[in-house]
């Protein structure tokens, strides 16, 4: 029996593609991170960043925390900060779906919306200015090693365990890059031959949760040597695959998960044999006010 809600973070299910994968010699599994209590893979990083920060004394209940987010990290931070009794302000572009904003506020966080034209970069600049001038402490998912270490501790070991060490390829969208950095580190320690595949949007594509960062905003936790291949996916491909995941596999997810699945299926077609794992990073219900499923 779990003692509290935070004990339910991690150990998410791995389910095999029964319809979309057409290569009989390849097994494709989807790791369903929407089963975390906050609804996304970001629960893992948020928990490890806040828990480790408290344990080290870097933050306390007197800290005024702030973080820029495109959505999922903010929801996870809001939930976990609430459990710990921490004060947090979350900064998002104003075009974020209303479900995300309302969920963060429901968990007790203050939400500040910044210009949609500046995107997440503008939200990051706003948060950094508050740290510089008003004494806030940034959680800093883009540079905080506790982000990727969450996946070194949990996501990687779970995938290795649940595939019984048979995994040959790991596919993940790249946003803050915490998921792919930590999971890659663990899996490569078990078997250097495992291929780590990152997913980025094509030029002029906008896919929430997947970014091709300008050099000055590249996450400091990113280490290119931990990714064997980067494959691109278009906005239209990601949207269409999110719809197909729901309709054909019964997996209700967001657009970034559709992007990762597109790449995983593209990869599966090229292999003689293999075991692929693709991250389904959240649930589709937080996109219902968008045009994703229209």
UniProtKB/TrEMBL annotation:
SUPFAM superfamilies listed in its UniProt record: Tryptophan synthase beta subunit-like PLP-dependent enzymes
Source superkingdom: Bacteria
Reaction it catalyzes: O-acetyl-L-serine + hydrogen sulfide = L-cysteine + acetate
Xref: InterPro entries: Cys_synth, Cys_Synth/Cystath_Beta-Synth, CysM, P-phosphate_BS, TrpB-like_PALP, TrpB-like_PALP_sf
Residue sites binding pyridoxal 5'-phosphate per the record: 72, 175-179, 256
Gene Ontology MF, one: cysteine synthase activity
Residues where N6-(pyridoxal phosphate)lysine is found: 42
Domain Tryptophan synthase beta chain-like PALP intervals: 6-282
Keywords, sorted A to Z: Amino-acid biosynthesis, Cysteine biosynthesis, Pyridoxal phosphate, Transferase
EC number: 2.5.1.47
Cofactor(s), by name: pyridoxal 5'-phosphate
Pathway(s): Amino-acid biosynthesis; L-cysteine biosynthesis; L-cysteine from L-serine: step 2/2
Gene Ontology biological process terms in this record: cysteine biosynthetic process from serine
EC class: transferase
PANTHER family: CYSTATHIONINE BETA-SYNTHASE
Family membership noted in the UniProt record: Belongs to the cysteine synthase/cystathionine beta-synthase family.
Protein's name in the database: Cysteine synthase
Gene, per the UniProt record: cysM
